[in-house]
Structure formats: structure tokens, C-alpha cells
């Protein structure tokens, strides 16, 4: 079974631009979550989606948005990029959103904002 | 507020020595606790998790962790370190009222293994 895939793996943008990152969960998984990882702040929760509905949102500005499609694939968008948005963005999927379910992480998208 | 504290941002051990990575948490409800490992340029891989039941949890690659409610701890151990264990390790707890996808992570501990 293929794992969680994220595209692109690396991305370079300039301040003020916008970016869209994509995540394809493991086949059959309906829950997708996004995290931002930076050296200073560590791993921080962005969003969680289940069956196309956003269940939870982390403490990030409105420039960060996401969605989930009917095939469970998810995208996140960051508008008006800032230097501080440079980070590794990780996506994780699980079959359900239950606490005992196992989350599987993708390799991440490394975003650099110049 | 909930939090996860990992004591020691860097831990170095010799090959064959005991690995002990410390994690303390705060949670107002019985917690679900996790340990993840991250190798360079990769995502996170689940090592083990505690949900309910037995407080000593065995995971992959010979790692185990013990949930101690009285000490609010969930320390990760491995009896004998291997060079391939060198990586960064993260302890996490599900946010109160949240679900599996809504985790609070510790800052991570980088494990180095000396030959």
C-alpha cells in the first residue's frame, strides 16, 4: 500500500506570493491533518479534515487555509507569504479521526520564502 | 494549558548503551500519548502509542515507554542503542477534546549514537 505522498517536495517562493501544497493520503484514509515544522517553534498543528469537513484549526492567521476533496486528497494554501512561513509542512492521514487510530506522516514539503 | 516537555534537546549515547529519552505532559483528561521518530529529510514515523490499558507499551525497533500517571511522564527507552537509532524523537499528546489529527508535540530530542 502506498504511503502518504506530498507534492511538491521542495518549493522556493518570494515574499507576497501564494503557494498551494498537496497531500494524497493512504488509500482508504479519510482523515488528513497538516503540521508546520520550524526550528524555532517545532511542530505546530495547522488543520484537520475528515470527510471534506474541517474538524479543527490551529492558531495560525487567516492566510493559511486548506480543504479536502471527496477523494480525501487535501490541499493547503498560504497567501501573501512571509519569511517566517519558511518551514517543513507535514501532512498525516489516518483511517478515522479516532484517538486510538494510527496517523501516518508524509515526507513533507520544504517551503523556502525569500 | 496542555503541554509536552522533553528534557534534553540533545542526548548522546554509545552504541550498545541504554537509551532514555524523557517526556512529561500536562493534560486535564486521561491522555493519549505518542512517540514519533524523524530521520533527516523524512516525515514522522510512529514508534509507539499509549491509549488505555497496559502502561508499559512496546513499539517498533526495540523501543518501549511506560505511562506513569503519578509522575505525568511517558519516557522512552531502549536497552541497547544501535547506530541506526540516531534521529530526532518527538513525544506528543492529543489535544484535550481533539482527535488523532490534533496533536501537541514536544520540542524534540536529537539522539546521537557514538560507535
Radius of gyration of chain B: 14 Å
Helix content of chain A: under 10%
Most extensive protein-chain contact, per-chain counts: A-B, 30 and 25 residues
Strand share of the residues of chain A?
Answer: over 45%
Please compute the radius of gyration of chain A using only Cα atoms.
13 Å
List the quaternary state of the chains.
heterodimer
Q: What structural class results from the helix and strand content of chain B? A: mainly beta
Give the termini separation of chain A: 37 Å
Shape of chain A: globular
Poorly predicted regions of chain B are none
How far is the first residue's CA from the last residue's CA of chain B? 41 Å
Mean pLDDT of chain B: 92
Major sheet characteristics of chain B: 6 strands, mixed
Q: Give the structural class of chain A.
A: mainly beta
Order of helices and strands of chain A: EEEEEEEEEEE
Q: Provide a count of the helices of chain B.
A: 0
Per-chain topology:
The complex is a heterodimer of chains A (114) and B (115).
Chain A: E1 5-7, E2 10-13, E3 19-24, E4 31-38, E5 42-50, E6 53-57, E7 64-68, E8 74-78, E9 87-94, E10 104-105, E11 109-113
Parallel strand pairs in A: 2-11
Antiparallel strand pairs in A: 1-3, 3-8, 4-5, 4-9, 5-6, 7-8, 9-10, 9-11
Chain B: E1 3-7, E2 10-14, E3 19-26, E4 33-38, E5 44-50, E6 56-58, E7 64-68, E8 73-78, E9 87-94, E10 103-105, E11 109-114
Parallel strand pairs in B: 2-11
Antiparallel strand pairs in B: 1-3, 3-8, 4-5, 4-9, 6-7, 7-8, 9-10, 9-11
Amino acid at each position: 500500500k502506498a504511503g502518504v505522498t506530498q507534492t511538491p517536495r521542495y518549493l522556493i517562493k518570494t515574499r507576497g506570493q501564494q503557494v498551494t501544497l498537496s497531500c494524497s493520503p493512504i488509500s482508504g484514509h479519510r482523515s488528513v491533518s497538516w503540521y508546520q515544522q520550524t526550528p524555532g517553534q517545532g511542530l505546530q498543528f495547522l488543520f484537520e479534515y475528515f470527510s471534506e469537513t474541517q474538524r479543527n484549526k490551529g492558531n495560525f492567521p487567516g492566510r493559511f487555509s486548506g480543504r479536502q476533496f471527496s477523494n480525501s486528497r487535501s490541499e493547503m494554501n498560504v497567501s501573501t507569504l512571509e519569511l517566517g512561513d519558511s518551514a517543513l509542512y507535514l501532512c498525516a492521514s489516518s483511517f478515522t479521526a479516532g484517538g486510538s487510530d494510527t496517523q501516518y506522516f508524509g515526507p513533507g514539503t520544504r517551503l523556502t520564502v525569500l | 494549558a496542555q503541554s509536552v516537555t522533553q528534557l534534553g534537546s540533545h542526548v548522546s549515547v554509545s552504541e550498545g548503551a541504554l537509551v532514555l529519552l524523557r517526556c512529561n505532559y500536562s493534560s486535564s483528561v486521561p491522555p493519549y500519548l505518542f512517540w514519533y521518530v524523524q530521520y533527516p529529510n523524512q516525515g514522522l514515523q510512529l514508534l509507539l502509542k499509549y491509549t488505555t490499558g497496559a502502561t508499559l507499551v512496546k513499539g517498533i525497533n526495540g523501543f518501549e515507554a511506560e505511562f506513569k500517571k503519578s509522575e505525568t511522564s511517558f519516557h522512552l527507552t531502549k536497552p541497547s542503542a544501535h547506530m541506526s537509532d540516531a534521529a530526532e524523537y518527538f513525544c506528543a499528546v492529543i489535544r484535550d477534546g481533539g482527535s488523532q489529527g490534533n496533536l501537541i508535540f514536544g520540542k524534540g530530542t536529537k539522539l546521537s549514537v557514538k560507535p
